Automatic annotation (TrEMBL):
The keyword Transferase applies. Keywords: Acyltransferase, Transferase. One of its GO terms (molecular function) is acyltransferase activity. InterPro entries: ACP_syn_III_C, Thiolase-like. GO terms for biological process: secondary metabolite biosynthetic process. It comes from Thermobifida halotolerans. The keyword Signal does not apply. Residues 257-347 form the Beta-ketoacyl-[acyl-carrier-protein] synthase III C-terminal domain. It comes from the Bacteria. This is 3-oxoacyl-ACP synthase.
Amino acid sequence: MGASMPDPTVDIGIASLGFAFGDDQDVAATAGEYVPDPERVLKWGYRTFHRAADDVHATDLAAAAARQALERAGTDARALDLVVLATSDMPEYSYWDSAAALADRLGIERTHTLLLNEGCASGINGLFYVAAAMAMRPETDTALFAVVNRVSEFHRNRMNVFNSVLSDGAAAAVIRRGHPANRWLASESFTVPRYNDLISLEFGGAVRPLPPDGWSSRTAPSGYDKINEHFDNDSARLRRFLGERVDHIREVIDAACARAGITRGDVDHVIYTNDSPASITAIAKALDHPPHRTNAELSPEHGHMGAADQLVSLGVHLERGDLRPGDVVALCGISTGMQWCCTLLRI
């Protein structure tokens, strides 16, 4: 049972969760399609990832997850006071609002919408933005928070960006004022902007709209090359950065705990980005946290779904009965920016 703590700024909780995934793909059977050295990918420990059909896009996945969450909550979409959508890959169109598109898919209008695009941090920070909106608007009683990652294989090679297999999935949460379970406690985040270019794509934006002639994500240099280039191929600088990643995760969790009036020792479960099991276990060790109370077991079955990782893992743990009433869960991760973030929930 989690420790007693002060009430949060706004009393809200997750009433239901919904999910949608691309088709299951076997990593071992498909790695050779993405990289010339599949054994490198297999060492990461992933077994399955989700790949959406070519005609299934981010809004499709987000809408499917949202409908499931609404059905499970017994809530009609027209009862929503706020719709927040977080995305972590390329949008379907330029000059286009994906949150508005989701609201349209749900058949609602004249509802406040918000679009988040903070990469993998969106699924964690989004809960803070929902809490902030509901704190500032007392008439807002029910919100929908949807998170989606739909990889554009034109732009990204699923198995060659970093040590993760990128995956297509969406999660949605119906959040209600006064809901007694899965309560938001606190959120914290900070950015170290000198690392902003680490995994950026050099084209597709206003500076360089088109890729070089003959470019393909399947044959483009790996993300490792870009990271090494950022650190001037200096292995000592890279090692320092890797150490900072862990230090900053510990720092952001401690800061969120301080806001909630608890300590890291009061956290019962840590849900991190769907990194490799070895990486998640290393994070747990650095936090003095039991590895079996993380998402290390779940990550190999789903792959890295960008901003959707933490809510998907939360949902699986809830469905399996891994979390007890009163437990404190830390949703945490790292994102482009680079940004470190944490949101605490009390089950």
